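Page 42, continued from yesterday. The earlier attempt failed because a stray header line got pasted into the input along with the sequence. Redoing it now with the clean sequence only.
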Amino acid sequence: MVLLGRNLFEREISWIAPESVSERKNVHFRARRNIFRDAFGDGKLSIAAESYYALWVNGEFVANGPARGTYSCNFIDEYDIDVFLQDGENIIAVEVFCNNYPTFIASPSQPALLVKVGDVITDESWDVQIASDWRDDVPKYTLQIGSMEFRDMRLEPQGWQVCQDNSEWQQAVVLASDLPIYSKDLFVRDVCDLEANVLLPVKVPVISSVSPLADLKDVNVAEIIGGEAFGNYEGEFSEYDIVAGNPAKIMPQPDGGGVAVIFDFGQAIIGGISLDLESQDGMAVDVCYGESIENGKINPLRHHYRFADRYILRSGRQTVSNPLHFRGGRYVQLIFRDFNVPITINKFEFIDRRYPIDSPNKFECDNKMLNSLWDKSLATMSACATDTFLDCPWREMSFWVNDFVVQQEFWHQLVGRPDLVKRSLSLALSQPASNGLVPGVCPSDGDDHYILFPTNLFLPIILKDFERYSADGDYVVAVLPEIEKIFNICHRYADGNNLLDPPVKYWNFTDWSYALCMNIEHFDSEEYPLNGRNTCIVNWFFCLAADALAELYIDRDNDKSQKYVKLAKKISTAIVEKFWNENLTCFNEFIDQDGPASKISHALGILSGRLPEKFIQPCSLALSRDDCLTPEFYMMHYVFKALAITNNYDGILRLIKEYWQPNVDSDCPTIWEANVYQTGSQAFSNAGSMCHAFSLAPVSFFQQEILGIKPLKKGFEIFSVNPCEIGLNNACGTINTPKGVIEMSWKKYDEGLKVNIVIPDGLQAVCHDGKVLFNGLHEFIIQGKKR
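This time it went through. Structure tokens are written below.
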């Protein structure tokens, strides 16, 4: 499997852990060692953990990590720690956490740590201890993320990071070399370090009282908060000081109850809290995270999710934080319990950690709503990018490979950097299931139950888009054979007509609309309407995948390219023959049942370019028909593209106004997961994400239609210039390419659109009239596409 980076170790490595932790769940352990300065050499330290670590050097916090891996590979971080070192002995201290069961963030072998400093590597000379301040008998925070945090900070050995504690430590156990963790490839981190920004709340919308709580040992924190009433808070409180980062007091309540405070950070956040406060012994702080406030509180109990953690505090000043986990949302609710003297919050911050985006890609026009939609789309994408793409920063933080088919294109258009696309695709390919197909979520546990069959057809489409935007031909050559192999595994499920009929055991997922219109939110094979069915939509993706392989091979292996051209033609011919319903003048969705297919199916037919002429008009009309299923936000991307091809710009604007404008007009800073069949946070059993990166379909419309800039050859080597006015008076933007930034603007005049464009060296622009433009500044009048 091709991954960025390199395998660090040429010599034998040794993972360590405390004795007898291989079968324990929710394991926290600590490790440390004194190392003389001379052993550090150039001051570099390498560290890996299964699954998360926090690192200190001489008591100073350095970093946490690592980058996300899969069941087949882990990643190791390298740090220059020279600034933390001193003459003589230096203390390396690490805390490690491992759920020790598969989640959608980690697929661990067992709890373990690996550190290398010069010639010193983790071995029996390291001291370790189970971190007893963390409870392991806790429920899941979410299925996708893993367990909640429940920590009694009174049990943490004070000064353990600098060997000034009196707790018991044991000799580390070096894990046997035949254990599964050694079978994982270990690569140097192949993505930039996450950017950490310290955020203060922008306001405190709620402060309330809650009734006294008898049992602070109860781990069912989310259920407790979900069921308790919030009342009136009595006492002083300074929102100004909290927002300014100054100390503020929380007063005890007359009935001995607790105090709940909601902090609004004004944006989507992902990372961890830092609560610096003065506390009395045994007081508890419950921390829950949300994207909305309902009935004056954040209810952490949503569907089967439990968005809450608990910390029991020691007396005195301390900091509550969660460096071993990511949490996200917009709001953080703190509930202070069991205290009878004023609490001083010295400072409450959120340490936001995400991929560093400094995007040169811009878009602006004279429509404020469209500008706001672009800005909220960028904010959404930013919050959904760490060391992989995420579906959302709150509920799952999962890299769904099926989402990736649209998300990666939005990323190219909003950010213009290919490295995260490359890494994410490599991770997806590193974890084949037993049958060779790629699971829909990454990481997976290697089993077949997370296989989303159409996801495997998306891979050639993703790779084609990657090359058009990045021009990274070496990477394409490296992964193309593997993606072709996966495509051919899918092809085995074709019938005699070259139409795909996948087994019922696989989730035949393409878009939420098929289930949501029937109020089905689960994918059991007996319920989900596409499972085990020969469907129009999946076969059109089969056709597009074959054509993508043809394009990818065209300059590399012409025989293979022609092979896939012929296959795509056979598939499209069979789709028309078997799925077209002449009476309804549209496609059927199922080969064995009459009834209009989804608008997505008709859009894909148009986008394939393989529809016979007589079918193009009725397919175009189907994009606006009420009896054809409208997609949710996720797959609306393809409807937008098909409407653009057929010059139905009014249709695109209607969709934006109906479905995206309510989102834009709300105070939500990001784009929701759903707003067609279900809305915002009320979607998916009241657990709908309000920041979801697959929901950004308008982004392509802004860049490729309003600005009119589309890559035609790899890396924008050749791109089109064909803007659309759609009732606007002006528009401008920039697009990052491997050769530099394209600067584009136009302004409407009576004679047409006056275009100004700056083309970087090495690129060519083709206007709608066939005129070719080379590098430099160009000004001209063009008759832009109309509404």
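Notes: The chain has a mean pLDDT of 95.
Reminder to self: strip header lines before submitting.
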